[in-house]
From TrEMBL:
Protein name: Glutamate-1-semialdehyde 2,1-aminomutase
PROSITE patterns: AA_TRANSFER_CLASS_3 (PS00600)
Organism name: Sulfuracidifex tepidarius
EC number from the UniProt entry: 5.4.3.8
Pathways per UniProt: Porphyrin-containing compound metabolism; protoporphyrin-IX biosynthesis; 5-aminolevulinate from L-glutamyl-tRNA(Glu): step 2/2
Gene: hemL
Alphabetical list of InterPro entries matching this protein: 4pyrrol_synth_GluAld_NH2Trfase (IPR004639), Aminotrans_3 (IPR005814), Aminotrans_3_PPA_site (IPR049704), PyrdxlP-dep_Trfase (IPR015424), PyrdxlP-dep_Trfase_major (IPR015421), PyrdxlP-dep_Trfase_small (IPR015422)
């Protein structure tokens, strides 16, 4: 049973979990025994409609048949070679085919590793040290990214993680999202190696870029000789098969990927312009290595997932599911709020009218959001346990599932009114 496991977990893991956001689930985390389509089946035998979807990777829902089959076939062939394999070539070709900025690829094992290596690469390539990031953008859990970061970092009230050396903090400068003037000031006055950003913020609720913001940052980085890194760990293959850069038609120098490209298995990738990528070892001297880089099971799940996206082009369908749900919720909430949706990602912010950056989102009524999360979970619907995360839909969220969810929201919001 979940509660007994939770009590045991508290004695085994810091805070009872292995990734902090999981501890926020109210009244206490449920333990999952199985994932099936749009559902999580808990250790208590409860079937829950899942809008968290592993925090983004599961664009086809849980355990999609063809991906599962391909993983099983790969298991029969072994799951770690320590040599190159055909499947890494295949997955890299798909990424290069779809992502406009991708000319060469380095596979790693997480989004964290991808952004950490992209930052090192930008520094090595430009010979500069400073990085410009945005308040509330989350780029994983490494030292250069844990400064004014979103997601659980902010949810737990951490501005700069303890343990990050001051020397490191001094190499990172921060602007508010959508503030082009700040970007220009910093690029002018500080010798910046790279600007890294989420092309759509997905770790502070959902906050889209304002018209012209991405293009403006692109123009400024090229004017001042800095590199532009799009962190598309969430948006890559989700907003469009070519990622946010395809949707917004702004092509960065480097792109970091993760989540969907591994079909739910651990993965990360750095990709971008050929001449920059050539700086990575062994072609160049910006070091990267990994025992599990280009892991065969992750490659296989990634290929099978992208093939489904290529063959079925499900974007209209998953976007529509998110649109119907987001619009219904937006109309049901009678107090002050704003809902942001882009494609199959959305979030509602309570107690505020306008959210264009992390500072606006910080003052939303998070306690009320958590209450809604808790009451929905009792009704069998799982939305993220934090206002700062994203609600995702998948190809498995059909009309029936969406309609049940709308009814549950009606009930919960009615009870709260
Ligand atoms: C935009 C973005 N970048 C990087 C990361 C880190 O990825 P991982 O959790 O795979 O290390 C995340 C994780 O949520 C993310 O959303």
């Amino acid at each position: 049973m979940s509660y007994e496991l939770w009590k045991e977990a508290l004695s085994l893991f810091a805070g009872g979990v292995n990734s902090p956001v999981r501890a926020l689930v109210r009244p206490s985390p449920f333990f999952t025994a199985k994932g099936e389509g749009p559902f999580l089946i808990t250790e208590d035998g409860k079937k829950i409609i899942d809008y968290v979807l592993g925090y983004g990777p599961l664009i086809l829902g849980h355990s999609p048949e063809r991906v599962k089959q391909k993983i099983k076939e790969q298991v029969d062939k072994g799951w770690l070679y320590g040599t190159p394999s055909r499947i890494e070539v295949e997955l890299a070709k798909k990424i290069i085919n779809h992502i406009p900025s991708a000319q060469k690829v380095r596979f790693v094992n997480s989004g964290t590793e991808a952004t950490m290596n992209a930052i090192r690469l930008a520094r090595g390539f430009t010979g500069r040290t400073k990085i410009l990031k945005f308040n509330g953008n989350y780029h994983g859990a490494h030292d250069y990214a844990l400064i004014e970061a979103g997601s659980a970092v902010s949810e737990y009230g951490i501005t700069i993680s303890k343990g990050v050396p001051e020397e490191v903090v001094r190499t990172v400068t921060v602007c508010e999202y959508n503030d082009l003037e700040c970007v220009e000031r910093r690029l002018k006055s500080e010798n910046i190696a790279a600007v890294i950003l989420e092309p759509v913020m997905g770790n502070y609720g959902v906050i889209p870029p304002e018209d012209g913001f991405l293009r403006g940052v692109k123009e400024l980085t090229s004017t001042y000789g800095s590199l532009l890194i799009f962190d598309e760990v969430i948006t890559g293959f989700r907003l469009d098969i070519g990622g946010a850069q395809s949707l917004f038609k702004v092509v960065p120098d480097l792109t970091t990927l993760g989540k969907i490209i591994g079909g739910g298995l651990p993965i990360g990738a750095i990709t971008g312009k050929r001449e920059i990528m050539e700086s990575i070892t062994p072609a160049g001297s910006v070091f990267n290595a990994g025992t599990f880089n280009a892991n065969p099971l992750s490659m296989t799940a990634g290929i099978a997932t992208i093939e489904e996206l290529e063959n079925k082009n499900p974007y209209t369908e998953i976007n529509r599911a998110a649109e119907v749900l987001a619009d219904e919720i937006d109309q049901m909430i009678k107090t002050e709020h704003v809902t942001h949706r882009i494609g199959s990602m959305f979030q509602f912010f309570l107690g505020v009218k306008d959210v264009k950056n992390a500072s606006d989102a910080k003052i939303t009524n998070r306690a009320l959001y958590l209450k809604i999360h808790e009451m929905l979970l009792k009704e069998g619907v799982f939305i993220p346990p934090s206002q700062l995360e994203t609600i995702f839909t998948s190809t498995s969220h059909n009309d029936e599932v969406i309609n049940i969810t709308i009814d549950k929201f009606k009930k919960v919001l009615g009870e709260l009114a």
